[in-house]
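Key result, reporting period 2: structure in, sequence out.
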């Protein structure tokens, strides 16, 4: 990499004093994995500690060891990222394995979730090393996102002085040079864990992907209930169980109905206020850059695909969803909200409702939600993202701050019920919006 790829930033935030509360007890547990439903095999698992904001990747047959992990480990394998030294004083080195050549985004966040600096570049396959210099005293989160991999970790700095913050590329080791080491890695993968940490596991088996959350209190087996969730465009979606319901754990991004009929591309459509019949799809800011992360945005006509608004028989409103799945009615959203702790009167109310049900749905430990991302724990594994909306006047709004999802229940001829989550609230918003707006979709499984 060339010097043009070095990014510098002056940190102007105040000192963050390290608290004795950071010293918590640790336990040692072994976590194994199994599959049920559409598949009984598990080909890989991404394990994330949502309390410490770290991740590791396990291959088929690997066992996860939770407990004390040496903070000065420097060995890097194909599923890991390491920081040494940690805690750091003036500088530290980040090492991670790039599973394929391509783009990489490296970002640093402070304890409040504010992004301090980031770099984007193209790197080769193999172990990559970066030098991080000048972080002021405090706690930070490091995210590394590349083509086919995502690492995150916590870094503590003991540097008492304020200085220029720099990320500098150090070098790489080619894949061929580390192949022997990778083949001999242990089938036990370590992850730092303290009692009470919330973990999120994403199990993969071929095209099936299932999310499970847990707070382990001993040796256990995590069982993934695999279910097919594939649209006409061959997008395979992660799924998650909440009570008796199974939901998609990511936003829909198809441009076709399940029978192959093409939706209308709304790119550049402009003002469509009052158009309640055209089955449009949109991508935020008319840029396909946002599609893979946030999915697509749809008018209510596209969502329903000619179906009648009905909570009495929600499984009949397949609409835009893949076969075996349907658009959730307003009553099904309420069912999930009450499972998360909302009372029936709160669920029936209009506007901002409940207490922290929205926080249980919002994704955490990443750059997607802007600060403060109030109440976010993602304890359900729903992993809601702030994909914004496409207003019927042609403008795009709220990426990073709000997420909006349609229900299959109309309010009247022009409006339909929706749900939204907001960066500075832990509650869920129930509101009726004009049907020509573009919102996200999460489908639920037929039973």
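The corresponding designed sequence is given below.
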């Amino acid at each position: 990499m060339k010097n043009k790829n070095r990014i510098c930033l002056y940190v102007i935030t105040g000192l963050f004093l390290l608290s004795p509360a950071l010293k918590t007890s640790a336990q040692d547990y072994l976590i194994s994995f199994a599959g049920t439903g559409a598949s009984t095999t598990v080909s890989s698992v991404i394990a994330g500690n949502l309390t410490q904001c770290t991740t590791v990747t396990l291959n088929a047959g690997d066992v996860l060891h939770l407990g004390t992990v040496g903070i000065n480990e420097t060995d890097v394998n194909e599923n890991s990222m390491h920081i040494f030294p940690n805690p750091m004083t003036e500088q530290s080195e980040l090492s991670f394995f790039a599973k394929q050549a391509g783009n990489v985004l490296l970002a640093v966040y402070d304890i409040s979730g504010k992004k301090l600096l980031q770099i984007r570049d193209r790197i080769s396959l193999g172990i990559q090393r970066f030098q991080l210099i000048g972080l002021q005293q405090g706690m930070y989160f490091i995210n590394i996102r590349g083509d086919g991999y995502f690492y995150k970790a916590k870094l503590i700095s003991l540097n008492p002085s304020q200085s220029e913050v720099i990320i500098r590329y150090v070098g790489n080791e080619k894949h061929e040079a580390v192949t022997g080491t990778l083949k001999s890695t242990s089938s036990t993968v370590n992850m730092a864990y303290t009692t009470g940490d919330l973990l999120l596991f994403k199990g993969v088996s071929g095209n099936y992907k299932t999310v499970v959350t847990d707070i382990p209190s001993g040796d256990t087996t995590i069982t993934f209930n695999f279910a097919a969730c594939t649209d006409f465009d061959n997008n395979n979606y992660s799924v998650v169980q909440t009570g008796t319901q199974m939901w998609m754990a990511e936003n829909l991004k198809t441009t076709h109905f399940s029978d192959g009929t093409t939706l209308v591309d709304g790119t550049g459509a402009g003002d469509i206020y009052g158009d309640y019949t055209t089955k449009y799809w949109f991508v935020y800011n008319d840029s396909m850059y946002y599609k893979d992360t946030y999915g697509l945005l749809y008018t209510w006509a596209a969502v329903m695909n000619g179906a009648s608004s009905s909570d009495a028989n929600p499984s009949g409103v397949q609409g835009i969803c893949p076969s075996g799945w349907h658009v959730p009615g307003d009553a099904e959203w309420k069912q999930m909200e009450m499972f998360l702790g909302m009372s029936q009167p709160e669920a029936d109310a209009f506007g901002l409702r409940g207490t922290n049900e929205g926080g249980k749905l919002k994704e955490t430990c990443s750059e997607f939600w802007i600060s403060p991302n109030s109440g976010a724990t993602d304890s359900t594994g729903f992993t809601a993202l702030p994909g914004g909306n496409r207003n019927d006047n042609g403008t795009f709004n709220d990426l990073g701050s709000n997420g909006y999802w349609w229900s299959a229940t109309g309010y009247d001829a022009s409006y339909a019920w929706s749900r939204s989550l907001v960066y500075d609230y832990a509650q869920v918003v129930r509101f009726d919006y004009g049907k020509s707006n573009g919102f996200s979709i999460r489908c639920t499984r037929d039973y």
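The two ends are 53 Å apart (CA to CA). The chain has two domains: 3-222, 249-445. This case is discussed further under Risks and Mitigation.
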